[in-house]
Amino acid sequence: MVRLLDALDRARADSGEDFHFALQLERFFESVENDEELSDETRLHLDEMDGRYLLPDLVDKLEDWYSDSTFQSARDALDQFEDAITDAEDRGWVNVASQYQLRRIRLKAGLQGHDVTDELEEALEFIESCHTDDLASLTTSIIEVTTDNIDDVPKPHRDRWIDLIKIITDVNRTENRFNRHREYIRLLHEFKQACDRDTSDVETALVDSYRREADIVGRKSQLQKADILQSGVAECAEYLSDERKRNWKQEALQARRTGTETELHELDPDDLDVDGIEGESLQQAVAEEMEHNTQVYVDWFKQVKQSSGSSSYAFYCLALSSSLFPDPNKIRLSTEEFVISQLVSRQIISPEAHTLSIDPSDSESIPNNYAHYAAGKMSSLGNALYRLIKEGHLTLSNIIHIFRIGDTLSPDTEAFLTDALLELHEDNHRKALFLFVPHLEATIVDTLQSIGRPAYTIIDEGTQQQLLGGLFIDGRDLFGRHYAIYLRYRYTSREGMNLRNRLSHGQLRYRNANYLNTVLTLFDILKCLITLNSADYLNYFGIPQWTLSPPTQYAQETDLSLFTDLNMQIIGYGTSTDGHTLLVIRENGHEDHTELFFDRGRIRRYLIDGTRLTRDEIRDEIDQLRDDHPHIPDSIDYTWLDQDDLILHTIKDAIDDQTTVPADTPSGDTIIEHAKVRGIDESTTRTAFRLLEERGDITTREIDGETVVPTDEYLQIFEHATRVTGIGETLAWHVADHFDSEQAFFDADQEAFQAVPGIGPHRADRLATDCTSPPAVVEE
């Protein structure tokens, strides 16, 4: 709701910015229509808006209708929608007026015994008068709802709707807005089909749209041309002759081969599986390999969308797929870099020929030939996303929907990203890229703050926000190690593309501000949102049932955090003896069944009736499943987490792993997150804390409102500090936080103590005097 108020103020200041308010209204109305409980904060902001704007009264009526089915409230809401439309038109808010038109039609269409003939006619007249200023997604939504209610459209009005859609289609064709152009072609096709009209002219227009765009775009990018032609073949297959399809496919392959040579300088053909091929045939093989991988991504996305009925869900599954990014360990091993790097000093030069550094030290260094492996994967992913957008499988509404699920972005960040999405939708890739890249950092910082994670670093004067590179360096726990290295390579590292810094300092080549970098940056923004705020996305979508993951993902490391849930209990897991399959066994006591998850490139879920089954009973059920599902491996090595001792041992290991220095204090929340990786949910972890403390294995303390698990040395430093005059508990905790070991505490001088936050010179003198050695042990 904060964003709604912010967008309202923006629209009042500049009527041309009203599309932000219209999009926020869409989000708000969907919540009301779905009878979702509005938060207390939202209620407060509605009260603040009362008297300033008409929305609160309208919301009251809509809530009465959608929650209690009070018919009079629905009629009153229809009247208020009419007032809202008039108000928006008077203010010059074309997009807001369209949003109100759309909601009024949907409301009345849902009232039994009522038609929307008058409302559709008014919407028709409205769009006829101002379609050039309207947000495309709102106009298309009104056309879609008109098609859904075609029986309420008189025949003369149907002709007017067809003429209107044709006019808008022609305008977008003239201005080379091909995404919009094809959106309206598809709508016209659906509308004509609903009216039982001939659609051959529309199908011809769709084919011509792809042909025209490919010819125009091909002057700048052959790779982009290849993707457009492939999308044309995919969408227009039934409208193209066999000969034309073959010609387009061949032309696309040739364009990709040319583009690979001239546009992908990071891609080394030697890194692809094309051994024994040289010269021109090598480039052909590289192009075919890239096209194959792109097609795999596209087909997979379409399959998930068709199975789930949601493009947003398909993107969510794609974002959580682990095979999209290179494995730095495999790269190092394959090139024996761990030996060579010790013998050769490296001089790093940017793509613009600027020498950046020699022998930079890096805690998580990027392998020397990482770029070669990353380029092929990135290009295939970017091409696939571009094609999905072109073919209408991944729309502006789908992307905005994903942004909104987490609800973590500030109003300004969301506004900038919305502008960038609109530019991308209009194929203004350079404008979109220059908006996306700086707001990748804003997205990460906003999300970290929203979920209570620090986005700052400690300096001598206090704290400051971490730079993007610092977030990535420290981000293996946030993003996962492989993805954190990829983000550094792509945006901030001098050893990589360094896209963010090159763009900021004006060192980015003009040709590199292209469609590929733009859609990949959008993907990274969305993936960071989903990764950092996983709880909200898991709550909304659930565990992804399809992912693109390497089959040997679990051979080296088992991460069960994806399967943990507060309401479920993981009782065991197993890996196949060949290491290719992960099995997770989870009990759902609320619904009295046991869940089985098998991950072998994609996650499959099966249910067994009952809970608290014996291990033999579970094995028998798995054997029965195997008869019908051959992907379930014959031999599985099980680890059972329903043993208290094993759980306690696992939690103690997680605590020890987070204790990097003798006097450390891992927080309870940190231990909970690391326990999830090992398949132990939050409730069980907290119970284990209590049992471990009762047994005397650990000690927990509440420090500044946060539960921590301090080591013995940390507690001893605290105890020593409290014995000094003028040092209370709060300052003593600060002292304990400052020193890595008890010995370092006793060795500290006045200057070292004064560096502790809150310790002035006088207290530092007393600490240095009274804490120079451990207290003597008195023998009896």
TrEMBL record:
The organism's superkingdom is given as Archaea
Q: Which Gene3D superfamilies match?
A: 5' to 3' exonuclease, C-terminal subdomain (1.10.150.20)
> What's the name of the protein?
DUF4209 domain protein
Describe the location of the DUF4209 domain by residue ranges. 476-515
Q: Which residues form a coiled coil?
A: none
| Record organism | Haloferax gibbonsii
**Pfam families associated with the record:** DUF4209 (PF13910), HHH_5 (PF14520)
